[in-house]
Specification:
Blueprint lengths: L1 H27 L3 E2 L5 E10 L4 E7 L2 E5 L23 E6 L11 H10 L3 E10 L8 E7 L8 H8 L5 E8 L2 E4 L5 E3 L7 E8 L5 E6 L2 H6 L7 E6 L2 E2 L1 H31 L2 H8 L5 H16 L2 H16 L1 H7 L4
Parallel strand pairs: 9-13
Antiparallel strand pairs: 1-14, 2-3, 2-6, 4-5, 5-13, 6-7, 8-11, 9-10, 11-12
Length: 331
């Protein structure tokens, strides 16, 4: 009868393990709220393949414009890439064309860089900051330009040594970028031609780099600004403790973790049952209990020698299956 009751209890525990996560997640009902991008940093670097990198253009002066506040006559999505997304999650990012840091690389460093510049890579990155999810507020999209889209090394050398003031880079980054609720950055559509720009070194009392987008539609959408421009889809995220947890691990990850954890606990409780049969399923334990009570009484009376003799007697009984069976026979 005891085993039958234990089996029924374990069955109900398993039912609870399976259904509890579903009930908890469904009753929690986290509400999705908007999670817009609130800070942007843009950077363009030139890197030698053998090592060494110079940051040419960098700015944090970017304006985030909600897509529903743009003029209706602006068609920044002629191919309908954004048709499937909520317009409240879409932002137009317009950055200043001039870098917010001066070009302060010493002449001797520039000369050495020019001499060593043979094979190079051009890297462009967007660093986007949002309020959620926790520990993933800052996400980064970085792209290394294809060799056919990069400027030639001699073009960069001519700009650095002062012969010219600009070079052109093509297909620098995709115009449409999606940031998922879990904090991953993906492109919405791989365009045949991304954003191309002229990279200009301005000289005068001070020197600084500029990024000039050559697409007239981008310039019109940003009110005349020729800096980096992108259309960002920042997906909604659930709020509250349950929502933040779901956004980090997803419901399947939480469900599997919960079931595996409880299942492992039950397995530990039920494992090696055959090893416990000789000690748990005994016909009668009255004699063993009497020895234990005698050990306690001897300790209470200060008869430590008697206590030790009784203790080792109990140990010998448990060490010998034959003696254990004899001492636990039913009268």
């Amino acid at each position: 009868m005891t085993k039958f009751c234990n089996g029924i209890c374990l069955f109900f525990i398993l039912i609870c393990v399976i259904w509890a996560p579903m009930l908890m997640y469904s009753s929690g009902n986290p509400t999705n709220i908007a999670n817009p991008v609130n800070d942007v940093r843009v950077q363009l670097d030139i890197k030698e393949k053998s090592g060494g990198r110079l940051t040419l253009y960098q700015t944090t002066l970017c304006e985030m414009i909600p897509f529903n506040q743009l003029h209706d006559d602006l068609n920044l999505d002629p191919n309908n890439y954004l048709y499937a997304y909520n317009i409240n999650d879409i932002q137009l990012i317009c950055c200043q064309p001039d870098a917010n840091t001066l070009w302060l690389v010493p002449d001797v460093v520039q000369r050495r860089f020019i001499l060593s510049l043979k094979d190079m890579e051009v890297k462009f990155s967007w660093v986007l900051t949002r309020d959620r999810p926790k520990d993933k507020e800052v996400v980064k999209y970085e792209r290394t330009l294809d060799p056919v889209d990069c400027p030639k090394p001699w073009e960069v050398k001519k700009v650095l040594n002062g012969s010219t003031n600009s070079f052109r880079a093509c297909n620098i980054y995709p115009r449409y970028i999606r940031v998922t609720g879990s904090g991953e950055v993906r492109t919405i559509e791989e365009e045949a031609n991304g954003v191309s720009a002229d990279i200009i070194l301005n000289r005068g009392v001070s020197e600084w780099w500029s990024f000039h987008d050559i697409n007239s539609l981008d310039v019109k959408g940003c009110g005349g600004l020729r800096g980096p421009m992108a259309i960002i889809v920042s997906e909604e995220t659930p709020q509250g403790l349950l929502g933040e947890t779901l956004s980090k691990f997803s419901i399947w990850g939480l469900y599997i973790t919960f079931v595996l954890a409880v299942g492992r606990f039950i397995r530990l409780q039920c494992s090696d049952l055959r090893m416990r049969i000789p000690y748990e399923n005994l016909p009668s334990c009255d004699r063993l209990i009497a020895i234990c009570e005698d050990i306690y009484a001897a300790r209470a009376e200060g008869e430590l020698v008697v206590e030790e003799i009784l203790y080792w007697t109990l140990v010998k009984i448990y060490r010998s299956p034959h003696m254990l069976l004899e001492y636990t026979k039913s009268d």
